[in-house]
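Project standup — Tuesday

K.O.: blocked on the structure for the chain from last sprint. Re-posting the sequence here as requested.
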Amino acid sequence: MIYPGEVFAQTQEFDTNIRQLLPYYDEMLDAIVLCLPIKAKRILELGFGTGELTRKVLHHCPDAHVTAVDYSPRMVDFLQTKLDSQGEKERVKVVHLDFGAWANDEAHINFTGHFDAVISSLAIHHLSDRMKEKLLHKIARSLNPSGCFWNADPVLPEFPELADIYKQSRQKWAQQQNIDLDAVRSKVGKSETQGYSSQDQLITLDNQLQMLEKAGFSKTAVIWKYYNLAVFGGLH
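H.V.: unblocked you, prediction finished:
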């Protein structure tokens, strides 16, 4: 059994396998990074996984310190080891925390001050719709007045007829890359509910943009999309 969001049974295989499971994984993460102010000082990352987005952010924002949050003990250990090997340990505060509990004001930690940016990738879709709303309100309250939030996540098709098209797009991409999707999917672990996160709880992109507006984001945008994968967010 693994936590929702860990995806693969073997952590050390995640960085390789996720790039074979999701089309344009690095391009998706790069889209988030490009939206971050280069001069950002404080960044909060929710659900850091193996730290691939963390690593890209540190390179893009040379003066930034990242508070990286994840609820998985093995991901916490993995990121700390990766940061040690790359000499970036001093710029990242790794926090073992369920960000759903943080959204629900049940966390054992309260972050001091506000953030210039909050980011997340492939994590928030594991929350219920109600908890997604609570999290976005919490994020909005945690941002500086000019702060931003960007999220990369899978989304529901805009209407049912697109579901098969989205599936075909993934298969066609895999064939072009000479990837055996069935072989990659065989490495996916079985997850069970942990804390506030469960298996995929997808909603449409339009619904999430509405949630952002209700949470108080003055401007919202979809900055990258490939069928059912999207990067979206906004400015506080």
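K.O.: great, moving the ticket to review. The longest helix spans residues 73-86. The chain is about 40% helix and 20% strand.
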